[in-house]
Write a structure and sequence with these properties.
mainly alpha; membrane
Length: 255
Amino acid sequence: MSLLAAAGRFQGRLVLTHRDYLIDLVRTPLLAAVFLLLIRHNDRPDLLAYGLLAPVLMGVWSMAMLISGEVVDNDRWLGTLELQIAAPAGFARVVLSRVWVTTAISLLTVVEVAAVAILGFGIVPDVPHPFVFLVGLLATAVATAGSATLMAALFVATRTARTFQNSLSYPVLLLGGVFTPLDRLPEWTHPIGRLIYLSWSSDLLRDALGPAPVTSVAWRTGAVLGLGLLTGLGGRLLLGRVVRLVRETGTVGLT
């Protein structure tokens, strides 16, 4: 437990003091202002839920990919990766703890977007289904941590992981229904989009902000958690496999 707490404290301090890591916390209020301005200019209050949720999900996903995904890569750059892998403490446990702390910090985007809506536009976000919203948000955080774990494992496995990191974000956000519901996209994208947990998260969270009753909450929450845990399990297994390989070959600094 002390190991997890120490790893979490380290990552929290790193995120909050490293200016580059705070870019998403700076960008999210600006995106929220742009979306809300577009909604007001076009007189489309029916799109308010979209304007509030899109910058939140973008911020959470971006921090997961850019910070959590680079946990291992930054350690390699600082020259501490070899020491961590050689240490008796489980390397995967350390990585997972740091990923979780980063994901928790990314949820500050919810507060930021609410503050922009209230202070900048005089809009108090209405949440008719607060329990569903809270459950959906926590499930999204769990699934995001799972995806970040897989990305961290890819950075141990190969240096070309940055290519995936840079090129996949917006396609994933689009197919995940962050900007518009998946059912508004071409039909051929639906099977692909439903494999991305964000498509379930965005639909569930948007419904929680609407007045209509939210249906199938347990099933949809289970889909978010199931996809996230499946991804996280894949990342955990890949991380363990790669760490064993680099220990055997002594190539941790060369992969």
